[in-house]
Design a protein that fits this description.
CATH superfamily of the largest domain: Ribonuclease Z/Hydroxyacylglutathione hydrolase-like
CATH topology of the largest domain: Metallo-beta-lactamase, Chain A
Bound molecules: zinc ion
CATH class of the largest domain: Alpha Beta
Distance between the termini: 27 Å
Largest sheet: 7 strands, mixed
Helix content: 10-25%
Structural class: alpha/beta
Number of helices: 8
Radius of gyration: 20 Å
Strand content: 15-25%
CATH architecture of the largest domain: 4-Layer Sandwich
Number of strands: 18
């Protein structure tokens, strides 16, 4: 990667991918807070990522925004940039950069399994692959998400007198859980913490069906027994959740496959629903790309690097700072 440095800086066009600090030119793969930061001068991203950044950080969170559609090549001097869907959240992309015949693909965060709240992942061949590895250990084998969502529906049948509070991150996970519930035929009103409202509205505006979703009313006392309530995990731990009488605490996250972690977070009903590739997806995709070099940006880097070496693929961990696998997935 002579023309791209370890900080994902594309040198010939002075452009950074998902920079952690404000820069002159940024390409943003998706709207999660550890990839999209405010304060850049020029931002190149999908229409959805730009709109999500504006919802989260305000209209003026960058000086200039430029949209790029999926599968459309943009030439900047001698470098071509193409976005391919990453299947992670609404608007998320992989970034393929081409310079003097060499193709380098940046996955951003991605998943291959089906998710109707965003465009389906599209595989891309490349010479070098810069990949995430959030769940880059062989123990991570994500189960089918409809199986997981049915655990929640079963619990509602078993405990109709108890509110079910599901911990979800505001961007992507909340909407995916709502969509999965609707896909399973659950058509009751679903309640959300106020901090999820703007992004749920934004998804609905983009014709992603979430059904009837209402904000939890903080002033009027209401009985939420037998209802589903979505809230950020931080709200579940604070005073907000005390208004619910004997709730079942659940959380939807890829990390819920680690029983100890579920226990530590006092999660009674863990749902293993991940928006990241699991071990098999990560390694299958590396093979598919036919990349000769693999660079791992963040996550469980050692195991992926080891697997690549065993498979005679050159690999290096970049250990990018600021990628947070705990706060928002
Ligand atoms: Zn993400």
């Amino acid at each position: 990667m002579k023309w791209i440095d370890k900080n994902l800086h594309i040198i010939p066009i002075n452009t950074h991918i998902d920079p952690y600090k404000p820069v002159e030119n940024a390409i943003i793969t998706h709207g999660h807070a550890d990839h999209a930061k405010p304060g850049h001068k020029n931002v190149l991203a999908t229409k959805e990522t730009i709109e999500i950044m504006k919802i989260r950080y305000g209209e003026n969170c960058a000086e200039n925004f430029q949209e790029l559609k999926l599968n459309q090549k943009l030439k900047i001097n001698d470098v071509s940039i193409t976005f391919y869907p990453a299947g992670h959240i609404l608007g998320s992309v992989q970034v393929l950069a081409e310079f003097k015949g060499e193709k380098i693909n940046f996955t951003g965060d991605y998943k291959i399994s089906k998710d109707i709240t965003c465009t389906q992942f599209q595989p891309v061949k490349c010479h070098s692959l810069v990949t995430e590895a959030t769940f880059g250990l062989p123990i991570f084998q994500h189960p089918n998400e409809s199986f997981e969502i049915n655990k929640l529906l079963k619990s509602l049948q078993l405990f109709p007198e108890r509110p079910h509070i599901i911990g979800v991150y505001a961007l992507g996970k909340a909407q995916r859980v709502l969509s999965l519930l609707r896909q399973q035929g659950y058509d009751n009103e679903i309640f959300i913490h106020g901090s999820l409202e703007k992004l749920c509205n934004y998804y609905q505006k983009n014709e992603i069906f979430l059904g009837k979703v209402s904000k939890v009313n903080n002033t009027i006392k209401k009985n939420y027994n037998g209802e589903i309530i979505l809230a950020p995990p931080s709200a579940i731990k604070n005073v907000w959740s005390r208004k619910f009488d004997d709730p079942i605490i659940s959380q939807a996250s890829g990390w819920m496959s680690i029983k100890q972690r579920a226990k530590q977070s006092l999660v009674e009903l863990p749902l293993i629903i991940s928006d990241h590739a699991d071990w098999n997806e990560l390694t299958d995709y590396i093979k598919y790309t036919e990349a000769e070099n693999v660079y791992v940006t963040h996550g469980r880097e050692d195991a992926i690097v080891h697997w690549c070496t065993q498979n005679k693929i050159k690999a290096l961990a970049l250990s990018l700072s600021g990628r947070d696998d705990e706060t928002e997935l």
